[in-house]
Amino acid sequence: MKKFTALLIVVLYVLSCKAIDGNKIIEAANQAISYSGRIDVSVKGQVTFDWPGVYFKCRFTGKSIGLKLYGDKQISYNVFIDNVPSVVSSASGEDIIWIAQNLKSGTHTLQVYKRTEAFLGISTFKGLVLDDNAEVLPWENISSRKIEFIGNSITCGYGTEGKNRNERFKPETENNYNSYAAFISRAFNADYSIIAHSGMGVVRNYGDSLKVSIAPQMPARFNQTLDNNLTLMWDFQRWKPDFVVINLGTNDFSTQPYPDKIIFQRTYEGLITHVRQVYGNLPIFCIVGPMINEPCYSYVKEMVENYKLLNKSANINFIGIPNELTNGKGDLGSDSHPSAQGQKKMAAMIAPVISSVMGWDYKQEELLIK
Question: What is the CATH architecture of 146-367?
Fold first, then answer.
C-alpha cells in the first residue's frame, strides 16, 4: 500500500492551511483527508454529504483539534481520536466542535463517521482546526478493498441503539457504525459506501397505499450524489467497489398491498443490470431478511436464479437471513429493528459467504458478540 513522501505531505498541507485565532484551518479538500462514501465537492472550501456511514479520516500533530462540521442538530457522528470513541452533533453557524484538547505530543489519528441517515439532514464539512504549528498527515495503510451497500433502514443502522423492540425510533438511536454493513467492512478491512434510506423499497415504499410508489424508490436514488438532492447525479467513475451488496424488499412486502411479483422482480433485475452497467461485471450479493420472510424471500431467490440463467452469470448470489436469527435477547432495538447485537449476528452470517465467493480473508473476532 502506498505511503505519501514527506515532501508531498508538506506541499499538500501548506496549501490548505489558514490562520484563525492562533490556530489554523485545514480545508476539507486537503488531500491528506481520506473520504469514503458519496460526497459533493462542487462548492469550493467544503465537502457535503448526507448518506449514512460517510466517513473521513487522517492523522494530525498538535495537542488539540476541532471540526468545522455543520448541519441539523439531529445529525450525529462517531468520532475516534487515537481509537478512543465519542459522539458529537453538528455545529451551527460558524461554531467549532472541539473534539480533543491537551493531547500528548506526537502524531494522532482522527476518524469521523456519520451515524445518521439523510432524512435527518445534510452535513457540510469545512475543515479541521489545528494548533498553529501542527500539521495534517495522510492515513496510513489505506485499504485497497471497497464494498458498496444498497439498502433500507436495516442497512442504515436504524434503531441499533434502542433499548428494546418496543422503544420508538429517535435520532440518537440510529448508529450506522453498528450496521451489518459496517461490521462486515471492518471484518474485511475494506472501505465502504452505503446507499440506504429507511422505508424505501424496490418498487413500493413502506406503508404506501399503492402497489408501486410514486415517490423515488431505491433504484432511482442509487444514481444520486446526495439522497436529499434528486437532480445531482453521482459520477460512478469516482469510486468503484469490488462487489455490491443489495438488501431490499423488506418495505415492499411489510404491509399490504404487495407489489405484483413480476413488477417487483423485473425492477430488481433492472437495478442489478444498472449496477453492472456502471461498475462492470462485479459480484453482487442479494440479501433478504431478517425483518421479512415470504413472499419476498422466494421472489428474490427466484429472481437471482433466473438472472443467472438468462444472463449466464454466476457472479450473483442470494443470501437469506431467517427471522429467527434476531429473535434472541438483546437482538432487537427500536421499532423491532436489529440492534447492534442483531446486526452483528447478520454480519457473522453474511461474511463467510462473501469470503468464499471473493476469496477474501476476514477477522472473525470483529463479528464476535461479547
Answer: 3-Layer(aba) Sandwich (3.40)
